[in-house]
Specification:
Elements (H helix, E strand, L loop, with lengths): L12 H19 L2 H28 L10 H16 L5 H23 L4 H20 L10 E2 L14 H24 L1 H11 L1 H6 L4 H27 L1 E2 L6 H14 L6 H23 L7 H15 L4 H17 L1
Helix pairs in contact: 1-2, 1-6, 2-6, 2-9, 2-10, 2-11, 3-4, 3-9, 4-5, 4-9, 6-7, 6-9, 7-9, 10-11, 11-12
């Protein structure tokens, strides 16, 4: 099996943008020094963690047509898989990661088996209901901080590599994002991905052709949840904190916005969406405070206006619209 399919167009604008972004992320920590450099390294690490969770969500939302409003619960589950064992003296990162993946796989399989019996609004509400149950379950864990959350004394110990420095955590997160992008890309191009995309267009027709649609969707749902769990493990290590707020429905909504902003149904879109949204959340408050200090608390109006304009003008998202324009360009060249 080839690492990269021959069909990939290395001269396409979307490919050049993706390569530029990845090279920039690879070199960024080397260019950052001092206290401000440490801040930006931690900030971009958080951006990539959100992007990782969004990549997982995009796998079922963009390619499978499954709108989940509860994927933040898997981020929270991954974070508590680090915090709770650490509270009991288990500091091994491999143990944390293993607990997160196993617990998430079991929970996602159960929730997916129930939710996938429905479609549309019912699917959204079932995923939201399970997420809320898990959220309030975390709030009730008084021995582990309850609503106040749980602080980690130190980051996970993976033995082979050290996460104690922000730089090492940055590159581990970057590796996870690149791996998730690659696996998502290959899965979409595989027969599995073709069936998943076919079921998004017409579930009954895909089933009539003999494909086990329910099984494919369940596997995709579990794989999507696992990506979010890994993001939760990384988020807990970044903040050295785990909180029920990581599983709030608002975070699930933010992940959906990231996917749509970057480009629904595009492999690289979630990373672009995460960079745009989280950067705007940092930049806009400062701009409003400098220009209109009396309205500094209303900066989210500008963020909402930006998202509205993107949704209105670029219906396929920022990266998705770039993909569409490059595809049209290639079609014109062939003619």
């Amino acid at each position: 099996m080839k690492l990269f399919p021959a069909a990939i167009d290395w001269r396409a604008p979307r490919t050049l943008v993706a390569v530029f972004v990845l090279i920039t992320l690879l070199l960024l920590p080397l260019l950052m020094t001092g206290d401000s450099g440490s801040f930006y390294v931690k900030f971009i690490t958080r951006v990539m963690i959100y992007a990782l969770a969004a990549i997982g969500l995009n796998f079922i939302l963009g390619f499978g047509g499954m709108v989940s409003l509860g994927h933040a619960m898997y981020v929270m589950l991954g974070a508590y898989a680090v915090a709770i064992p650490a509270q009991h003296g288990i500091v091994s990162g491999w143990a944390h990661l293993g607990i997160a993946l196993v617990a998430t796989a079991v929970l996602a399989a159960v929730i997916g088996a129930v939710a996938l019996r429905t479609t549309g609004i019912a699917f959204i509400m079932i995923t939201l209901a399970f997420a809320q149950m898990l959220f309030f379950g975390a709030v009730s864990l008084k021995d582990y901080g309850g609503d106040d959350g749980l602080t980690l004394a130190a980051r996970s110990d993976f033995a082979l590599f050290d996460l104690s420095s922000n730089g090492s955590l940055y590159y581990v997160t970057l590796f996870c994002v690149v791996l998730a992008l690659y696996l998502s890309w290959r899965a979409v191009l595989s027969p599995f991905g073709l069936v998943l995309r076919g079921s998004k267009s017409n579930t009954r027709r895909a089933a009539a052709l003999g494909h086990p649609v329910f099984r494919y969707q369940l596997v995709a749902y579990v794989a999507s949840a696992l990506a979010c769990a890994v993001a939760g493990v990384l988020l807990a290590n970044l903040t050295q904190f785990a909180s029920p707020a990581y599983g709030a429905w608002t975070l699930s909504g933010e992940l959906i916005v990231i996917v749509i902003l970057g480009g629904l149904g595009t492999v690289f879109g979630p990373l672009i969406g995460a960079i745009l949204l989280l950067s705007l959340e940092e930049i806009l408050p400062m701009l409003v405070e400098l220009t209109l200090p009396d309205y500094k608390s209303n900066w989210m109006l500008l963020l909402g206006a930006f998202i509205f304009i993107i949704a209105l003008v670029l219906k396929r998202g920022v990266f998705g619209s770039l993909s569409a324009s490059s595809a049209t360009h290639r079609k014109g060249d062939k003619q």
